[in-house]
UniProtKB/TrEMBL annotation:
The lineage of its organism: Eukaryota, Viridiplantae, Streptophyta, Embryophyta, Tracheophyta. Residues 6-40 form a coiled coil. This is Uncharacterized protein. It comes from Datura stramonium (Jimsonweed). InterPro entries: WIT1/WIT2. Residues 130-153 are annotated as: Disordered. Keywords: Coiled coil.
Length: 153
């Protein structure tokens, strides 16, 4: 080989060595970046893990509280429905009592008007009885004797 060819080979070898060194530097930089990113990710995971656990605990507590609230609402709804039913029953009873009181008042006024007039009832045996204004029961024979006494007086 000639010196010119040797110089060319040496120059090419030098270029290849530079390329290899450049590639080694690029690899080191990439490895350094990868290690740095891995450390950063590890620190972030270590930082976020407790927060995630705390959020999971909060979520579980919120779920438990939500279920307790739903149960409480269900109990209160049932109680209110019972009160509404009881109120409807009481309202019906009040209306019935009002009607009975009205009917009672009417019957009392009828009774008072019949107390002023003597009533005569005929029993099965043909015996007549009457009630006078004092409410005393009188038989047919006592009615005759009282009418006889009135005639002689």
């Amino acid at each position: 080989m000639k010196a010119n060819e040797l110089n060319e080979v040496a120059r090419r070898l030098k270029e290849l060595e530079c390329i290899v060194e450049s590639q080694k530097d690029d690899i080191e930089i990439a490895e350094h970046k990868a290690e740095s990113a891995e450390e950063k990710n590890t620190k972030e995971v270590e930082f976020l893990d407790p927060r995630v656990e705390g959020l999971e605990i909060s979520l579980n507590q919120a779920t438990v509280e939500k279920l307790a609230s739903a149960k409480n609402i269900n109990i209160k709804t049932s109680f209110i429905m019972d009160l509404v039913t009881q109120l409807a029953i009481e309202r019906g009873s009040t209306k019935r009592m009002f009607c009975l009181a009205k009917q009672n008042k009417s019957l009392i006024s009828k009774l008072e008007s019949t107390k002023e007039q003597p009533s005569i009832n005929v029993l099965e045996a043909g015996v007549a009885t009457a009630t006078d204004s004092s409410g005393e029961l009188q038989t047919e024979s006592s009615l005759k004797s009282s009418s006889d006494q009135r005639v002689t007086s």
